[in-house]
Design brief:
Largest sheet of chain A: 9 strands, mixed
Largest sheet of chain B: 9 strands, mixed
Oligomer: heterodimer
Strand content of chain A: 25-35%
Shape of chain B: globular
Largest interface: A-B, 94 and 86 residues
Strand order of the largest sheet of chain A: 7-6-5-8-4-1-2-3-9
Order of helices and strands of chain A: EHEEHEHEEEEEEEHEHEHEHEH
Distance between the termini of chain A: 66 Å
Number of helices of chain B: 6
Bound molecules: flavin-adenine dinucleotide, adenosine monophosphate
Helix content of chain B: 25-40%
Order of helices and strands of chain B: EEEHEHEHEHEEEEHEEEH
Structural class of chain A: alpha/beta
Shape of chain A: elongated
Number of strands of chain A: 15
Strand order of the largest sheet of chain B: 9-8-7-10-6-1-4-5-11
Helix content of chain A: 10-25%
Structural class of chain B: alpha/beta
Distance between the termini of chain B: 60 Å
Radius of gyration of chain A: 23 Å
Number of helices of chain A: 8
Radius of gyration of chain B: 22 Å
Chain lengths: 301, 253
């Protein structure tokens, strides 16, 4: 039996779709999540102390069910819960798997390294087999079957609640969010200074988009880290990404490969990001971006 | 307050990854080395916390002899002591790495109050070494943290969660994995660099064990061929850019 961990995160449904391709799946549902149509069987975890997230309690619930394979979404929770199961049982965990195939008693799999810039082909043996599914490795697809939901109460003790969420805080609502913006204007070292971002902000405002940047600009303190696009920053998927003065290191590219179109502004036509783009303007961004802003402000004839 | 921070030496890949002919590793002959940005932030956080709560800091890595460079960089930033678990240069998987780190921590005479890790290593991205170390030592563990506050014997840690933050509170000693953005790491100072050269590095020979996850080969994902259209040079290209923005329906009115 393959157990698939499901919580409120939409990536759980991708994990369910992924798991269903490996065999018969039972969903293990924590909190509010609708798995109707995805699996034949689902267990809804009901426990009076699980009103808030507690990773060791989730791990104990999984261990208690003695599954042969456990699949979880490649999220903070998915990773830390399965890592706990792995540590307790002394078995490996394959994180951010993008493909898997049953091969006798083993799983042949491909997983992401370097945030997805490099892939590793591996063989996973032993029991249970634990894996998390990389975000967007598959699209969530209901199987069109009817789902039987059963309540399940795990046996948990104090030690499983040593780590738990004790409080939540809402984020201050700000400008357009990077991960949902339709247009992102990116700034790299070529922007030259904190002040240099003003014109990028202006362009973003005209297009109703958001400003992002490379690690160089967050590291220099020109922008907050929340603006960083890449392996250790945000993953973006806008209709258009406009990187200005960004060279295109692989760690940046993995953050913007979800963009539908890329329009680069860079003074170096051999910068690696140019080869990844749909369009490029070669030259000084400090001349080009203001010219685009001026052009946008011109009244239509 | 004794703080330990664990870092991993990784190649500084640029715009493209080249593999060795047997596809078992990245060809590093032309590359420099670094640590994950998450770990750089863990080093900064160790310094910040030890500074606030009057404590000492130790950096630890498991890696080849050359990983002394990464330990020295951390000492140059201000870390007090360094430990190298020296390997023969082959990759150790997450289980082996965690075993060796936990063993080294057990053998330390002064116990640590706080053990900081990166959320995931830059290269393997296994998301588990810290959790395994915490389990082996029987310590509470929180991951993906972007804010730490310590009050007496308790630590509160913030993690980003859909539209806000979730806050965990755990007793010390504890294991915490941090994400870039928790702070802005300082640069090494010149006196720091000089001190780093003189700071002795404790060396331990770790033991390895086999794993049921076996790497077969590495693969660089195929890149689509470039199809870039150069719109022009300099400000003169602005009208063509705006035409594209309009075509894509990104300009209001
Ligand atoms: C483990 C790891 C994780 C990382 N994570 C991230 C991450 O999440 N995000 C990230 O971005 N990076 C990340 N990095 C860093 C990454 O490797 C690069 O160092 C970084 O992306 C480079 O930033 P940049 O393109 O702004 O700067 P540079 O590489 O210095 O490029 C500057 C570019 O600007 C152009 N330019 C200069 N002046 C002008 C001008 N006036 N007009 C137009 N163009 C100009 C230049 O031609 C050049 O192409 C990571 C690195 C590591 C090792
Ligand atoms: N070889 C190593 N030496 C020291 N610390 C390590 C090593 N490998 C992993 N770590 C630590 O564990 C964290 C998570 O790594 P991983 O589980 O491999 O993604 C890293 O960010 C480091 O802090």
């Amino acid at each position: 039996m393959i157990l698939c961990v499901v919580d409120g995160d939409p990536l759980s449904l991708e994990a369910l779709t992924f798991a269903s391709r490996l065999g018969e799946v039972e969903a293990l549902v924590f909190g509010e999540a609708d798995v109707g149509g995805y699996v034949a069987r689902a267990l809804r975890v009901v426990h009076d102390r699980l009103d808030e997230y507690a990773p060791d309690a989730w791990a104990q619930t999984i261990v208690g069910l003695a599954p042969e394979t456990v699949v979880a979404p490649g999220t903070d929770r998915g990773h830390e819960v399965l890592a706990r199961v792995a540590a307790r049982l002394g078995v490996p965990l394959a994180a951010n798997v993008v493909e898997a195939e049953v091969d006798g008693d083993a799983l042949s799999l491909t997983r992401q390294r370097w945030g997805g810039s490099l892939l590793e082909e591996a063989r996973l043996t032993g029991t249970p087999k634990l894996l998390t599914v990389a975000p967007h490795a598959v699209a969530a697809q209901p199987a069109g079957i009817s789902t039987t939901l059963r309540d399940f109460t795990p046996t948990l003790s104090d030690e499983h609640f040593r780590v738990r969420v004790t409080r939540r805080e809402r984020a201050a609502s700000g400008t357009a969010r990077l991960d949902t913006a339709r247009v992102v204007i990116g700034g790299g070292r070529g922007v030259g200074s904190k002040e240099g971002f003003a014109v990028l902000e202006e362009l973003a405002a005209l297009l109703g988009g958001a400003v992002g940047g490379s690690r160089v600009v967050t590291n220099l303190g020109w922008r907050p880290h929340s603006d960083q696009v890449g392996q250790t920053g945000a993953r973006i998927a806008p209709d258009l990404y406009i990187p200005c003065g960004v060279s295109g290191a692989i760690q940046h590219i993995v953050g913007c490969k979800g963009a539908k179109r890329i329009l680069v502004i860079n003074k170096d036509e051999h910068a690696p990001i140019v080869a990844r783009a749909d369009w490029a303007v070669i030259g000084d961004l400090h001349e080009i971006v203001p010219a685009i802003v001026a052009e946008l402000r011109k009244p239509l004839p | 307050m004794n703080v330990l921070v664990c870092v991993k030496r990784v190649p500084e890949t640029g715009a493209r990854i080249t593999l060795t002919p047997d596809a078992q590793a990245i060809d590093t002959t032309l590359l420099g080395f670094t640590i994950s940005p998450h770990e750089e932030c863990a080093v900064e956080e160790a310094l910040r916390i030890a500074g606030q709560h009057r404590g000492s800091t130790t950096v630890l890595t498991l890696g080849p002899a050359a990983a002394r460079e990464q330990l020295q960089n951390a000492v140059a930033m201000g870390i007090d002591a360094a430990v190298l678990l020296e390997t023969d240069g082959r990759d150790w998987n997450a289980e082996e790495t965690a075993d060796a780190i936990a063993e080294a921590i057990r053998a330390t005479p002064e116990p640590f109050d706080l053990l900081l890790f990166g959320n995931e290593a830059a290269d393997t991205g296994d998301y588990q070494v810290a959790v395994r170390v915490a389990h082996a030592l029987g310590l509470p563990c929180v991951t993906g943290i972007k804010g730490i506050a310590i009050d007496g014997g308790r630590l509160s840690a913030r993690r980003e969660a859909a539209g806000g933050w979730e806050v965990f509170e755990v007793p010390l000693p504890a294991v915490v994995t941090v994400k870039e953005g928790i702070n802005l790491p300082r640069y090494a100072s010149l006196p720091g660099r000089l001190r780093a050269k003189k700071t002795p590095i404790d060396q331990i020979e770790p033991q390895r064990r086999a794993s049921a996850l076996e790497t077969i080969r590495l693969v660089v994902p195929p890149e689509r061929a470039s199809h870039v259209e150069i719109l022009g040079r300099g400000a003169e290209a602005a009208p063509r850019v705006v035409a594209i923005l309009r075509d894509l329906g990104l300009v209001a009115s």
